[in-house]
Structures are given as structure tokens and as C-alpha cells.
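Bench log. Compound arrived from synthesis this morning; before running ITC I wanted a structural hypothesis for how flavin mononucleotide sits in the protein. Inputs:
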Amino acid sequence: MKVRRCTAVVIEPRENCRFDLGDLLSGGNGLVRERRWLALAPHLEAAQPLSDDEVLLMGRFSPDAWEERQVPLDAAVARLLQCGLLIADVPASGPHREADERYRALRWWPLAAITHHAARWDGVDSVQSMQRLGTDNIAGLLRACGTPPPATIEREAAGPDLRLPRSAPGALEALMAQRVTCRNFDPDRSLEQDLFSRMLERVFAAQACVRQGEGVDFLKKYTPSGGSLHATEAYLLIQRVEGITAGLYHYRPGEHALRPLPAPVLPLQQLARDALAGQHWFAHAPVLVVYAPRIARSHWKYQHHPKAYRALMLDVGHLSQTLYLSATDLGLGAFVTAAINEVQLEQAFGLPPMEAGPFAVGGFGWRAEQQEIAELDPNRAVW
Ligand SMILES: Cc1cc2nc3c(=O)[nH]c(=O)nc-3n(C[C@H](O)[C@H](O)[C@H](O)COP(=O)(O)O)c2cc1C
């Protein structure tokens, strides 16, 4: 049988700390620290615990060169094969080998792949977690985290400061001054279809397509994109847009069209709240946008590239700012959040995590008349 190591793996020495009453009663401080090795591999759903010996054994296998092994295998190799950290050329290893080959074909830089994979949330309620820790308010944050680093810094000067002239605000400044993250959407008001359409046109539509060769198309959009690749897809969870059936959609930037997707298992409002990790203040937005970069499009040019993932994150940030400003210009509220349950979104939209997993969720729609959840509007630009 031929055996190799999986394509990418990071072995983390993780320490968990838990409270133990027995330890406290027997004179300890009640905290028990446990250390173990965990193998993080992007083709496997869960991190795999390893023994000291297994850590060393993993290091002896190549991810590329198959090694001939006698059957029956020794127990340690058999266990690593069973959990998918080693791959073999036999049918029993098939599902792990296919997952590993799918991952390999995407040409990730391994550390980015592992970060992307390990940072995904599944069923997290970030609001409840903050409430439990008491960090959902400034007093609690200060108690838990102390005083933050200052809002601005003073570098040691190599000369006198050069004071810059303040300019008279123009139209762009007026627009930017009105941009306030919206946490109070009107749960009853639908968005007019022409406003919805205009939003998508501004943020995600292609303004032109430049053909550089057969199958080599570059889109021009209002927003910049690393390598001109525009790898980020917009998936929509539409709750209230006039004339459009509520549901899940994929936006087609060339056609400026929506493609309906299969209905989710959960009711839309429940899915929205779950996907937003319990952030109910965003879940009422009439339109939610899932920003989901297509990894293969980016890695076509940036193969195994340490900056590719960063560029994709920056792309999403740029799109989000265009969405914010477009919404503000139309009198709408907008938001973005990275506190999302990627796993629930992947399942609902049919997104393979390492190929097209979500990076963030944004949204837009009409604001409510009352501000119930705090927004940062010190200049009273909106409220
Ligand atoms: C990358 C990013 C992630 C954010 N995540 C959240 C979030 O999880 N929950 C939330 O209520 N606001 C979130 N926000 C909004 C910020 O809290 C908001 O931008 C900040 O308070 C400043 O307010 P402003 O946008 O009104 O200027 C996020 C903003 C950005 C850019």
C-alpha cells in the first residue's frame, strides 16, 4: 500500500483550562490545565488530537512522495490513515483522499487555508457569549480587558508637526459624514425594487468586461479588486423587496440578474439570525448580502501566495464600503459584520467552505423610526 501525508497540516500544542472543584477542595486554585497536540488540516472538518509519537510520525511522511508500506500496517499509521491525516491509495482512504485532492487543487497558501478553515463558526451565538462574559457594554469591557490602547498615538517627532489646512466639506464629505452603521432596520418596511436593483448595480454589477483571450475575462466594477479578478460573489438573503419573492439568490454581475437558489430548511428570519451569530439588530434588514470569494479565481493568479487571502479580505472590505456609501446616498441604512456562522451560511447557500466560503455579511434597507440599539452617531448625522 502507498501512503503519503495530507497536503496541509499545522500541529498546534493547545492548552485548555477548566474549573475543577476537586482541585479547589484539595488545596489547588481550582484551575486544571490540560495540554494536547491538535492537528489542523483544511480537508478535515474537525481538529484531530495526536499523541507525542503521532506528531513525530506525521513529520516523517511527505505530502507529495508516496511511500510503500507493508500490510498489515502498524497501529499508529493505521490510526493516522483512519482520521485522514495520512492518505493511502486504497478504497478505504477514498473520501479523505478526494477531500485532500480537492483542497490541493485549490492551491491555497497552507497557513491561510488553516486560518480560514479554523476560524469558521458553527452555531455560535456571539450576543449570548458577550452577555455571559459581561462584555456587551463598556463597563464590562473595561472590567474584562482594562483600558484600550489610545485612539491616536504620538510618535517621537523628527521635526515640528506640519499642520494641514482643513478644507470646506463637499458632496463626498457630506455623504461620508452620513454613513452610520445601521442597527435599527424597520422590520415592517419593504425595500422598493428600483432601490434594491440600484444598490446591486452599484456594488456588484460589472460595468464592462475586458476579454484578454479565450476564457480570460476581466470585469470592470465601481470597486477595485486585487489582480482585477473580482473573485467575490454576492449571495443574497432577501426578506422584503417589493416584487421579489423572499428567499436565497445568487447575483449575476454580468447580466445584473438574480438567480433563485433552493429554499433553505429554516425560515428566512431564523436563518438570518443564526447566520448573524445572534445579532438580532442586523437580522431584520430586508436584504442580507453574503460576501463569498471564489478561491480558485484568486489562486489562478496567486498560487500558494502568502498575500492572496489578505487581498481577498481587502476586496470584501472595499465592496462593503461601496455598499455602505451607496446605501447612504439612497437614504438607506447599511452594515457589515464578520461575526457570522459560516457553517450555517455554507449549508444554506451550498458553498464548499474551502472553495467559496463566506468572509462577511452585509445588509441594507430602511431604518426604523426609533433607535433602540445604539449606533455611533456623535454628530447626529442620522438620528
Ligand atoms: C470589518 C467590520 C466588522 C464589523 N462587525 C460588526 C459586528 O459584528 N457587529 C456590529 O454590530 N457591528 C459591526 N461592525 C460595525 C462597527 O461596529 C462600526 O463600523 C463601528 O462601530 C463604527 O461605527 P460607524 O460604522 O457607524 O462609523 C463592523 C464593521 C466592520 C468594518
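What the model suggests: The mean pLDDT is 97. The first strand starts at residue 2 and ends at 5.
ITC booked for Thursday regardless.
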